[in-house]
Amino acid sequence: MTEEVEDSTAPLIEHLAELRDRLIKSVVAFIIGMVICFAFGSWILDFLLAPIEETMRELGDPNPVMIFTAPQEYFFTLIRISMVFGLGLSSPVIANQLWRFVAPGLYKNEKSAFLPFIIASPVLFLLGASFAHFVVIPLAMNFFLGFADASSVFSAFIGDKGADALTASDEVGGISIVFQGKVNETLDITLKMIVAFGLCFQLPVLLTLMGKAGLVSATGLRNVRKYAIVGILLLSALVTPPDVLTQLILFVVVFGLYEISIHLVAYVEKKREAKLRAEGLWFDDDEDDDDDEEAEEEDPLMSEFDEDEDEEDEEGYFKDDDK
């Protein structure tokens, strides 16, 4: 009995030792990626702040300036950037370590089914992040900072003379409202939107994996579409700034990905059905019986015929009792 316990414990210890080695290698890769990104942190920060810089120039500021109000703020901003981009830089190594730990426990067909999703996941995340940085963030910055450009807005309605009068009244008195953005607050909005869109673009991968595992079906996803719309609207309101345009863009994108996921799940189901038919493991008897039962339930003539038969049986029963 003691020998059996020792034999069962040995593989567990080996797996834990291998998991420890994989985690150590992943952490080392993350630290190296973080150090590299910290060395280029100022360039990465300029890249992230490019949309707001371009917006400020379009609104008439020839020399956009952003501030920080604490001595350590800029340093920790670079640390935050290096952590996020260091994780992205080391993600291939981390994914490789995860795959090498999980792959020995998978069958050959499971490996071939799971590997494409590992490749597609970072690609879709990059697509979502790029869409957020180059499309959504410039629109959001134009929306927010556009309120400060009041003269150009009013001039479109009251003409040049009215705009000149408005400018002259501003020069006489009043308080000038000028945007002085903080680095960490602007970066917070940018990173949140990049991560949010990157994660939302993982929806086809997640639902297709669940469909491959048999947890969801294309028919089920179509039936809960109205609930999915409500959930996507709530998600758009939570992860984006409070402007309707950005929320609408995220809703349209995520709902489009949801519809694409339905078609991908349907394709997976057809492929699985064709494989089972080829192996002789797919049976249509149960489906035919279910279809016949549904047809009988829906056919009013059959229901009336059944009611007449029940009445005749009851009359015959009472006649037998009288005799």
End-to-end separation: 77 Å
**pLDDT under 50 segments (min length 5)?**
150-159, 165-169, 285-302
Radius of gyration over C-alpha positions, nearest whole angstrom = 31 Å
Q: Which structural class do the helices and strands define?
A: mainly alpha
Helix coverage percent: over 70%
Name the overall outline.
flat
Order of helices and strands: HHHHHHHHHHHHH
Instruction: Tell me the number of helical segments per DSSP (H or I, 4 or more residues long).
Output: 13
Q: How many strands, which pairing sense, and closed or not: the largest β-sheet?
A: none
The count of DSSP E runs of length 2 or more, i.e. the number of strands, is: 0
- Proportion of residues in extended strands: under 5%
pLDDT average, as an integer?
76
Structure, described:
The protein has helices spanning 2-39, 41-48, 50-58, 73-102, 108-145, 150-172, 183-200, 203-212, 218-223, 225-239, 244-279, 285-298, 300-322. The chain has 323 residues and is mainly alpha-helical. Helix content is 83%, strand content 0%. The N and C termini lie far apart (77 Å).
How would you briefly describe this protein structure?
The chain is mostly helical.
Can you give keywords for this protein?
13 helices, mainly alpha, 323 residues
